[in-house]
Amino acid sequence: MEPNGTPDENASYRYLSTRGEDTGFSFEEVVLNSVAPDGGLYIPEEIPRATAWESWRNLTFPELAFEIMSLYISPSEIPPADLRDIIARSYSTFRSPEITPLVRLREKHHLLELFHGPTFASKDIASQFLGNLLEYFLIRKNESKTSTAADRHHLTFVGATRGDAGSAAMYGLRGKRDISVVVMFPEGQIAPVQEAQITTVPDENISSLAVDGTFEDCQNILRSLRADRQANEDFDLVSSRNWAQILAQIVLYFYSYFALTKQSASFKLGDKIRFVVPTGKFGSILAGYFALHMGLPIEKLVIATNENDILDRFWRTGRYEKQRPGRVGPSGAVLGSGLRKTLSPAMDVLTSHNFERLLWFLACEFASSAGMDHYWNQRQASQEVCKWFRELDEKGSFGPVYRDVIRCARREFESERITDEQTLDTIRAFYRHSGYVLDPHSAVGAAATVRSIYRTRGVIHHISFSTAHPAKFSDTIVRALQGEEGFSVEDKVLAAEFADLEKREKKVTPMENDWQKVREYIRARRGHGGIA
Ligand SMILES: *Cc1c(COP(=O)(O)O)cnc(C)c1O
């Protein structure tokens, strides 16, 4: 998508909302607000071309992150030295010197390990960076204010989690001044390692609530708080919609591409590659779309979903449709809303909110065939997105979208749906083949990769994302590998770091399933200054 008007070299520093005609948001506004005032998501007005990308081959992870992020952040907003410092601090918390090591699983199949951060899951890549960015902007806003001033800028994040997103947000924001975090989780219903991570963060500004209810109850509480918030702007909601989280993940595509040129004799700079990404809210894979349009030679981005397959169905039919409540598949229990509980819970979604960002770009590309100017195309795209999402709200679905829109989507993406049975089989198959233990999310990606390699007749290299450490889902690993030769959870799965987790002091507040009680709790925490 190229603008028809005069190219403005800084358009990628400015942001617009997918639902509005407003443009010209600064990076700082985008990061501090997460969601645009009209309910849309922020995207850069233009995707920058990385003309010198090949010269980045030998950069370290932080150096590469700096080059990529500099194309999206004006140096007048964050001076280069400050940006370097934010990046360095964000990735110094990782246990691997390579941050995200690439390992070879089989011929043409490489696995990008994204679980070497503080919470052992891919969300750390984005959350560590976002936490430092938020802190940076708040320090700057509060510079001239005394520590007790009533007009200090303060962010209170409230979220509901089943595990990964909540703990990554807590570890990204722990100890940050002027930020507080309250995370709800369904008591007794998340994996023990996840619960231990969420309930043992010692920092004053972080709290966890064990809600007497299901994950859906937690989400309903959040919904009530959000509705209430319109009348009462006193806190924000943890958001996986924040643009900075997409930005941070663009780095992964370039970094692993370069790593492969060094690790594989048959892969050269300039060769085409396929990425396969276990997908829920469409954040990680959307970052791949940006990498592709910046100029990285990506042949296809392969979406791997579990049985919550709204995206897979969109790619097949052009319809975006929440599952009807009450439908039960052969292998899965169905929750009230139609959400299916699977072995890869971080991907159990009814809708994928970052998909809205891709839809905007597809609509914009479609609009550009009318031959009008770039601003007209942008406005058309926003109007189209508004129309689609109004339909989604009203009817639970939209589409089929125009044939050209789905054609554009299929040109750059493919999609695979993996069942729980196939997930277990994949964990077993890779263990038998190479002794490698995949967590269930990574196994969804690996299963999709096997299909893609087969379809492309083994001529193209694939990098699939490994998004969590297997120890976080040890029950599923045991179910898949119990009785396999040489397998024991202690040796093959549990990392030393986890043993220590169980011993740490717990800090958790039991909470009734009542949104007004949660609101009281949040207000009291702010009131008595426990959050500073
Ligand atoms: C969040 C998450 C995913 C999916 O990423 P999205 O950006 O939501 O598509 C996959 N695996 C794990 C372990 C995750 O935590």
Automatic annotation (TrEMBL):
A single BP term in Gene Ontology: threonine biosynthetic process
Any GO MF annotation of the entry: threonine synthase activity
Keyword rRNA-binding attributed: no
A Pfam family hit: Thr_synth_N
Coiled-coil segments on the chain, per record: none
InterPro entries membership: Thr_synth_N, Thr_synth_N_sf, Thr_synthase-like, Threonine_Synthase, TrpB-like_PALP_sf
The organism's place on the tree of life at top rank: Eukaryota
SUPFAM superfamilies for the chain: Tryptophan synthase beta subunit-like PLP-dependent enzymes (SSF53686)
Domain Threonine synthase N-terminal: 14-91
Cofactor(s) in the UniProt record: pyridoxal 5'-phosphate
Record carries keyword Lyase: yes
Residues with N6-(pyridoxal phosphate)lysine modification: K123
Family according to the record: Belongs to the threonine synthase family.
Name of protein: Threonine synthase-like protein
Lineage per the UniProt record: Eukaryota, Fungi, Dikarya, Ascomycota, Pezizomycotina
